[in-house]
Amino acid sequence: MTDLSSQASIWRSAEVFEARHHELHGLLNCAGIRVLNRRVSLDALELMFAAEYLGHFLLTNLLVPALRAGAPSRVITISGEGHKAGVEGGAAGTIDFDDLQAERSFSVFKQCKQVVLAKIMFTYELARRLTGTGIAANTLDPGFTRTGLIRNFPSYVRLLAQIRMALARPQTPEEGASHVVWLATAPELEDVTGRYFVQRQEGRSSPECCDEATARRLWEVSERLVGQRFGA
Questions:
Q1: What whole-number distance in Å separates Cα of residue 212 and Cα of residue 194?
Q2: Which end of the chain is more exposed for a tag (fewer CB within 10 A), N or C?
């Protein structure tokens, strides 16, 4: 079992995989965590950023050689609409390089937006770097789904979430997973890369996601945080 918030755990998992397998045909990045107050990982990084974004960045890059060997292969990273303006309240998500780890000021909503935006920008940058390798990299918003993401929140927050779910009629985990399976296996998507999907339709992410200079800077900062350079 891999702890996506721990870089040591990710390295061990990648080493175990490579010792047992030479090829990888599909990788799903779907770790998620929500905390109301700032917490840090074993690597002293803000927990949501570490688990939801940086862990995926590190694991994916460590497994790129296996993905190349298994091409055509696919990388799918779960994201969502939360990075957009007006979704979950407030402005659109941005990458705050001056306070990436929310050390100065922590807001669960702001940090969630930044993390989702980072995952989408990572997907687009990964797709650019893997052009011509046979590895497709796409990101997916599976839609509002009933999960246990806030199971550790206070009871009053869980109650409000239950009311929202009752009104919105979220899909079941099985229904949400069906969109992942489609994106991972549909023959017509074999050569499709660098796209944002909402369930089974191509969607449009926020304009901030398409800033290539910011995406390259985020990639370089991420490399420094994991202590490893990746050509992808």
A1: 12
A2: N
